[in-house]
Amino acid sequence: MTAPRVIEPKVRSMLQQPLTVGESPVWDEETGALWLTDILAPALVRLSGEGRIDRFDMPAEIGCLGLCRDNRIVVGLQTGVHLFDPVSRHLEFLSDPVGREINGRLNDGKVGPDGHFWVGSISEAKPQTDEAALYRVGADGSTRTVATGLTSSNGLAWSPDGRRMYHSDSRQCFLQAFDFDPETGAIGAARRLRSFTEEQGRPDGATTDRDGFYWSAGVSAGRLNRLSSEGEIVEIYILPVAAPTMPCFGGPDLSTLYVTSLSTDRTGRFEAGTVIAFDVDAEGLAPFRFG
């Protein structure tokens, strides 16, 4: 096993306004806009190609988002999955997978190759419990629980052919993979790919590139880990933010990495959440759309 290559990328700042917990960046290749969430604000944020920043206030904490085929945005709120129209600002309730029985909220989520919204929850109990789960939500609001026993569901991404789904648990610090049917959304049994140490970076949000590598935000280590499909860390990107939360590919040729981060004083000084970008020698894939 060869040692991973360590890279310090030339990073540019994309946002001057501070974020509480920046998360869930999604590139809209049709408009050239970057969407993301500010979980605790709570707000949905759009960075347009010409540099304009639009903030859409949400009625509850917002963990994640996905693009819809009808130009709406599917969002995972504390109160469930909703459809948001950026033009009218109308919010339409779709499903509440978590319910009010447990102390938790929706966390990481993405639209899958099957056109459904795959979204996981996070335990907000103190101490955290393993009552969180992963769900599959359809455009008609139908909801299916696909994985349980989680603490902080995270890291959703798919292989380029759509036949493998990656998923992590940030608190239990593991990465797993499932065989995936892109037509039906059926998944196989979970296969554990690796566990992470705090120094390697607890696995937060993630994305995949066209060559099948998995990019995981190491939220506890100020770095981005690029992993092979076997779970081996092959590259480490040292970032100028202490707590990166999720990467996504964007830009005209999908070879720019956008990375969100959260507010933290872990390094001994307070650092606000933000969005950074840097170019990489890799190419991402356009996001799937809901509906």
Automatic annotation (TrEMBL):
It comes from the Bacteria. One of its GO terms (biological process) is L-ascorbic acid biosynthetic process. Keywords: Metal-binding, Zinc. Transmembrane segments: none annotated. The keyword Endoplasmic reticulum does not apply. A divalent metal cation binds at residues 23, 154, 204. The active site is at 204 (proton donor/acceptor). SUPFAM superfamilies: Calcium-dependent phosphotriesterase. The keyword Metal-binding applies. Substrate binds at residues 105, 107. Binds 1 divalent metal cation per subunit. This is SMP-30/gluconolactonase/LRE family protein. It comes from Rhizobium pisi. The lineage of its organism: Bacteria, Pseudomonadati, Pseudomonadota, Alphaproteobacteria, Hyphomicrobiales.
